[in-house]
Amino acid sequence: MHDILDLVRYPLHQPGTAAWSALVKNCQQELDREGMFNLEGFMKPEALAKAMTEIRPVMETLSFVHKRRHNVYFKKDVPGIEAGHPALNMVDTINHTVCADQIPQSTLMWVYEWPHFAVFLAAVMNKNVLYPMRDPLARANVMCYRDGEALNWHFDRSEFTTTLLLQAPSSGGDFEYRKDLRTAEDPNFAGVAKVLRGQDNDTRSLKLAAGTLNVFRGVNTLHRVTPCVGPNERYIAVLSYFERPGVMFSKEEQVGFYGRAA
Question: Domain 18-258 classified CATH 3.40.30.10?
Fold first, then answer.
């Protein structure tokens, strides 16, 4: 793993040491302050190049085009929200997806299945343990966004999301977000409308560099990725872990996200 990740800067392989504990604490503080943390240069340039040689041919020949028209909740019916509210406006998301079972022995899957990675994430998120997903399709995905394609405004279903940017786009592809916009008790529909109208001064924009690990709390953070521009596509890996073992998508979810069932 030393050839893949910068373990000098980010000693994930040394749990319990002073350096590991300091890294965990710094990530927790950034997570509390910003709603996310970023480890720039987490994956080494040589490993990024190797990962792209493994993934790009699969993306270009076997990827599933996931095109979805949705509102920020991915739901038709949202209790307590009035008709015509901006959050119910339909927007388009499009990407090209490669699943874990299509890249089984790849550099990315080595990182995903490395036990120290899940141990580190669990410590930062104050979880007793995190398990890799059992689902052969959903456990790790690579999304490609081409010229004009974007991930539109939405809230995540999961508490937190772990991503690794493998290739930055020529232009665009900025991560925009508004942290802590709602709670389980308060959906803050007025605040959601303010963000969607471009009137919230606390909405932030972030441009990530290739090799950056990004972990963010997306369930209450409204966020999107702006349209990519230019010939270089945006390649981003989404790595899924859960507090209980054996998590699987339903057959319907697999078909909806990937066009097939395992």
Answer: no
